[in-house]
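Q: A reviewer asked whether we had any structural model of the full assembly, not just the individual parts. We don't, so I'm hoping you can provide one. Inputs are below.
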Amino acid sequence: MSTITRTWKVNGKPIKVRAPAGRRLLDYLRDDLGLIGAKEGCGEGECGACTVLIDNEPMVSCIVPVGQLADGTEILTIEGVEKKRAGRLLQQAYLECGAVQCGFCIPGMIISSYALLPKNPKPPTQAIRPPLSGNLCRCTG
Amino acid sequence: MNKAVSQSGRLIGQGMVRVDADGKVRGLTRYLNDIDYTGMLHGVVVRSPVARGRFKALVPDPAFDWSSVVVATAEDIPGENVVHMHDRTMPLLAEVGGELLYRGEPVAVVAAKTIELATEAAAHLRVEVEELPPLLTLQDAIAIFKKTPVKFDSMQDQDIVKGDLAKGFAAADDIIEAEYWAGHQEQLYIENQGFTVFPLADGSILCEGSLQCPYFPVHELNDPLQLPPEKIRVRQTPVGGAFGGKEEYPTMLIGYAALPALKSGKPVKITYDRHEDILFTPKRHPVWVRYKTGVKKDGTLTALECDFILDGGAYLTISDVVMFRGILHCALAYRCDNLIIRGRVARTHSFPCGAFRGFGAPQAIWGMESHIDAIAARLGKPPHTYRRQLHVRPGDVTPTGQILSKENGSTACLDLALQHAKFAQKRRQASRGKLRKGQTKYYGIGLSFFAHGAAFTGDGEAKFKAKGRMELALLDDGKPGVNIRVSSTEMGQGVHTIFTQIASDALALDPARIRFPMADTGLVPNSGPTVASRTTMVVGNVVYRASQDLKDQMESFASQRYFRGAKTVLKNSQFAAKSRRPLSFAKVARDMLTEHGPVNGFFEFKLPPDAKWDQVTFKGDSYPGYSWSANIAEVEIDPLTCELAVTRVTAVLDVGRVINPILAAGQVEGGLTQALGYAIMEKMGTGQNGLYDASRLQTYIIPTSLDTPIYDVKFVEYPYSFAPPGGKGLGELPMDGLAPAIANAVESAIGKRLRTIPITPEDLFAALHPAQGDNTP
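A: Here is a predicted structure for the entire assembly that you could use as a starting point for your response.
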């Protein structure tokens, strides 16, 4: 498999990437960068526990090969969310509203919620449902 | 106000923020697969390729390089090849020469430095079998039960008998009989199963992973591993959901990993991916239940005969107790003087079914709550007025002869739910198979009403004697505080938070000085498994009483040490004696630890001495307490596509004292969502190849944020006064009764009763277009 050499920004920090083109972004983030916040729940893009932002779009990192991401790609993971004010407010809202139970889906949930806000800063409940429907939660539903 | 309520303090009843939530929202919490175990091997399980067959040989491919691979088979089991759950029939690994009883039955474990190498090696082990004809499904087993009952293979029988059934039927004006079916259900915790086993120098093993019941493996693996309980140490890692799925199964996983670990002397980790986890871990038992009921014209239920048969799979494991809980819930909620309930566990050549939230009760309540609606319809009575007439209330006698105490909020749940959902009024809008003016979809509303027995069945808690310890210690910040040492595991339900609340109130100590470390059998006494809706009720009481014990000891120390024997009270994190300057908790704790060494409060749970139970006849007090609920579901069905949407669910619950209303409401909504999936989405059976016919998230569909209805959840509180702070069971109740409420709503929408769940659009199409038979889209 060919090896790629790229420069991305991960959580605002420039990162020199050298990895096999077919390596899953999820494995690269967790194993090479130690960003364990994104979780593997199904490995086939169904559960959303591995969701990260790629150039501001929520994507399931278990089915993204690193070779697909060009130089200059910006990636935001749960570890980077709290560096943003909106991210901290979201985390606080999750705490206060009792949205967290086992917690395994929560990093992906928060990433999907964070992605929604710039498009719709004050979403009514019905507008929150579709963008979160790709994140399975078995505790709270 | 009763005793339990008056004794509660500042935090019990408050919506305190979860103590474990900060790490979870920041992505810092380290679940098993987030922990770096340097030098470990990865284990892969090799399985039977057939549902039933003679195991002739395990043949390694001679062309493969086996030099860096550890292979463990039944021959490597140091002791007896048996995992003793509720019987002693199931081997840890199948033995050559024996019979393979289900597809996927483990025959060997392969371990290597990478999961890729272990997987490749496993593929080079050929399992030679001589196939035998299997009995795969509950449908096949029930066909035998009906045609030739003597040939029906039941792994466990149990009957409940009350009154005189023949007399009851003789007194009836009408007899109503029907059968109800439900399929498998997968727990679908989002974190898959996994465990790491470390072999230690003294011959013992240390096991770390995701589980509910840390003491199960400690006692269930003694025989095969030839290790006494003190040489099997189990530590919980943060659990990413469990729902019963991590109750009995992790014992097997630890057993599988222990064999190559003991053989190689290296730690071995086994984690399943989603596909393997769905295919080869236990499911909710499929059920067939038949009710035959006799009623008088006025609605009196004079006789009830019930056959309740679960698909146990190939081995009993824990299915006897699932069936017991099932039959105890088959006719629990209604008055009936004459009944027989017969429970059976069918043996099939499929993966052994196991624990799943509700544990037999959802299957029983599914049948009963559908049937009560059917009886009401036959009588011409509305379903809610019939339930108001027939439901049990304090003073009534259960099928096992237990007299319900005044701590049962059955009527309050039913009445409040009906009133809150405007049931009677909305029921007039039900389509009954014909769109009303202004309706573009069939609308229906359905009700269910039920109880859930909290804690172990019968005298289980009396025999078990749950133990707990409150430990005075220096905490992670170097300052004194208290550690909660019980074997209850945090798996999302919030036990770390509510026990902190309970301990804080009982000790009168700032919750910031209380920690609940992950359960570790090396450090916690056995307070029992985290199952059976028992944790708040039983172990919560242990924490409360052990905290009081610690408080007494510290007050007595402070009185002698600083206040010349004057009465001393720990209040607001300070020790105070009359007209003396109060001393801080930290000072007293430090001095006490220095002068006394270890300081612990203890408690051991007991049931009231007058509680009686006969495990043979199933007579007596079947549960220490009962939680109650009424569910009301509203549905819309598209006449063209037959798409079914559940639009609103009202749930009123009596779970005793609500310790944390925010957590409780969240747990209820989640449980209702699982029940929604059970009712209309989650379809799974045993296929002709012996495997579950839905084995991926692409085919096993659970509810998402687009499927969940508007939830309206209300609590009424009838606390369990014997065991302050007075909680009853909460965990399972929300899973128990939504499926029949939805089926009853479907009946009210289309005018036809469906007696199999899940109810899919295909089923609705067939019901709405009977002339076209099986010609579904």
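A: Points you may want to mention in the reply: Chain A touches chain B through 47 residues (CB under 8 Å). The mean pLDDT of chain A is 96.
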